[in-house]
Amino acid sequence: MPIYINRNNEQLGPFEEVAAVGMLHSGQLSQNDRLIRQGETEWKSIAQFFPQLAGTNSKPKGSTFGVLLIVFGMIIGGITGFISFIILLSIDPKSQGYQQLATYRIALAVFLVICFIGVIMFFTGLLTNSVAKKKNRNLTTKQVGNNSK
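Now predict its structure.
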């Protein structure tokens, strides 16, 4: 059934229930908004209207693991990238001996590999977060769809 939203004494809608849940997750609904289904007589708060979603008026949460991967990936990638840059600047093939030049190149290769691992961690964290948010959003939409029948 269509849903209407009362915001500051202004009626908005009609909206499908799934769209209203999406608005709730995207932060478009506030705790002051009131909702009503077509045919009902009493306006309800978000907590009363969606009791199974009480307190979820923010965007779906990502995974803690994803956030940690993002943070550590940025730290590892940034630090090792900076160190690699410093090593690269310090290499002067004309004034350094062969042994020292080989050592610089090995160190540079190691730091670049670690930097690459940091970048992979960062993007894996972004992907993990994205998947967790999508899974939470789909799960919530299914719960609301099942409870409204």
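Residues 97 and 113 are 24 Å apart (CA to CA).
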